[in-house]
């Protein structure tokens, strides 16, 4: 008797999953695209937090605007942040 109940419960679970599987409404972030200038400015802010006074944040943000986000700085990549570093 318990095997019939377990089988019926398993069949119900599979049926419920199959019904709900088609109703998933998901929108992955990659499908909507991204704003390169927004990422560029956010990375400038992140680098300023990481590097402090050695990093020229306003200069970095100005270059984001000037180049329309085409040159995105990466805080751990010296080549991409070298124009914004100062000697103190």
From TrEMBL:
Keywords: Disulfide bond, Hormone, Neuropeptide, Secreted, Signal. It is found in: Secreted. Disulfide bonds join 40-64, 44-60, 47-75. InterPro entries: Eclosion (IPR006825). One of its GO terms (molecular function) is ecdysis-triggering hormone activity. Residues 1-26 form the signal peptide. It holds the Pfam family Eclosion. One of its GO terms (cellular component) is extracellular region. GO terms for biological process: ecdysis, chitin-based cuticle; neuropeptide signaling pathway. Neuropeptide that triggers the performance of ecdysis behaviors at the end of a molt. It triggers adult behavior patterns: larval, pupal and adult ecdysis, and plasticization during the molt. Belongs to the insect eclosion hormone family. This is Eclosion hormone. It comes from Ostrinia furnacalis.
């Amino acid at each position: 008797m318990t095997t019939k109940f377990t089988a019926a419960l398993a069949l119900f679970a599979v049926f419920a999953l199959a019904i709900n599987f088609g109703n998933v409404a998901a929108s992955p972030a990659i499908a909507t695209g991204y704003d390169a200038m927004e990422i560029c400015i956010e990375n400038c802010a992140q680098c300023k937090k990481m590097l402090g006074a050695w990093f020229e944040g306003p200069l970095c943000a100005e270059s984001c605007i000037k180049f329309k986000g085409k040159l995105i700085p990466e805080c751990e990549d010296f080549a991409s942040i070298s124009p914004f570093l100062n000697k103190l």
